[in-house]
Every structure is written in structure tokens, then in C-alpha cells.
Amino acid sequence: QSALTQPASVSGSPGQSITISCTGTDNDVGRSNFVSWYQHHPGKAPKLMIYEGAKRPSGVSNRFSGSKSGNTASLTISGLQAEDEADYYCCSYAGLTNVIFGGGTKLTVL
Amino acid sequence: QVQLVQSGAEVKKPGASVRVSCKASGYTFTAYYMYWVRQAPGQGLEWMGWINPNNGVTNYAQKFQGWVTMTRDTSINTAYMELSRLRSNDTAVYYCARTPGRYYFDYWGQGTLVTVSS
User: Fold this and answer.
1) Of A34, A81, A110, B118, which has the most beta carbons under 10 Å away?
2) CA-based nearest residue to B20, from B89, B111, B116
3) Bridge partners of residue B81, in order along the sequence
4) Are strands A86-93 and A99-101 parallel, antiparallel or unpaired?
5) How far apart (Å, rounded) are the C-alpha atoms in residues A28 and B46?
6) How confident is the model at residue A95 (pLDDT cuts 50, 70, 90)?
7) What is the chain A residue with the closest CA to B52?
8) What is the Cα–Cα distance from A110 to A87, expressed in whole angstroms?
9) Which residues of B fall below an 8 Å CB-CB distance to A?
10) CA–CA distance, B10 with A49 (Å, rounded to integer)
11) B59 CB burial (10 A radius; 0-12, 13-18, 19+)
12) A100 CB near a chain B CB, below 8 Å?
């Protein structure tokens, strides 16, 4: 099973908004709302940013939002800040208690 | 507070096995499935499998079936991941991650670097 498709990189200036897409198939992203997003700074543990498609854990800034349409999920970060620079991964339920990750997107804050 | 503390870095020769531990604290260990995820250098995250600490039931990603074994010791709230017949492309950072269900991970270990080199 191939990884979910994410853009390799995105960039934006402080204060701007960016959106990272995560494209899968009917067998994963399209089958449920069990899509989550993780922020990963190199050398640190990944951090949960969005779960069940659009829910934010306690403590995560409301600048982060998630959505889904068909087989594509999206993570939007508004009001970009320097500390948002990181790698971002989507993850989806893929049936039979399996999950699948996206290939990751490197966010650069210009 | 919830913590997942993993064992330290390992260097192994090709063909050897490695066991990584993940000690949980701050919650009821048997109430949450534990997943294992790895990241090879320059690569993305890759799901390896999970274990139900309550009964030891496991489910491995198809790619790892036959050469990964996940176990747990409930007396010390620790999950283990053992990978056998190591190859150079198993060099990666291995993470344990807790799931409250619904296929997302709310707490992660700090990661364990496993280097496979002759």
C-alpha cells in the first residue's frame, strides 16, 4: 500500500495562510473521518495537531484547522509563525485496524 | 502526566535482532493500544503494527509480518518491539505511540535510533 500523497514542500511568509493536502483513495482517506495530522520537528517526537479530520487537541492553536473532501484531506495553518516551520504528516485509517501515513510535507516559513 | 520513555540508541550488524522498549507512565497502560512507527533517514513515517497491552493481541503491517514481534510486560508498564534479520535499510528512528482509539496518536515516545551497519 503506497503512502498518502502530500506535497514535498510548501512555504509562506509570517502571517500568511497555507494549506497542505493529503490525497488517498476510497480505501483510506475516503472511507472515514479518521484522518489525523502531526507536526514533526527533527529530533523530536511528532505532535498531534488534528484528529478525526477536524478536531484540535487541547493546547493546539486554533490557527491549525483540518478538513476533508472525498479522498483528500487538508491541513490549513493561518497566521503563519516561525515556530510552525516543521515537517507535517497526515495519517488515515486504512481498514482492518491498519493506518497509513502520508509522505510528509516540509513547511518553510520565509 | 503521560510519558512514553524509550530505550537508548542501538548499533547492530546486519542479520542481528534489536529490541526497543517503551515504558509508559501517567495513565493506565492496559487501557490504550500502543503502535510502533519508524522513520528512515530522509523518509516519512511508516506504520509497523500495534499491540493491545491488555491481552497482548497484535496486528502487524503486512510488510513487517514474519520479522517484527511486539510484546508487553504489564508488571512494568512497558511495550517492546523486536525486529529480526536486520538489514541496512532498517536503519531508522523507531517510535512508540499511544492511541486512545479512532486511529490517531496522542502521545509519542522520544524515538530510538537503530543503526544497522557492518
Assistant:
1) A34
2) B111
3) B20, B70
4) antiparallel
5) 15
6) confident
7) A97
8) 15
9) 35, 37, 44-47, 50, 59, 61-62, 95, 97, 102-106, 108-111
10) 30
11) middle
12) yes
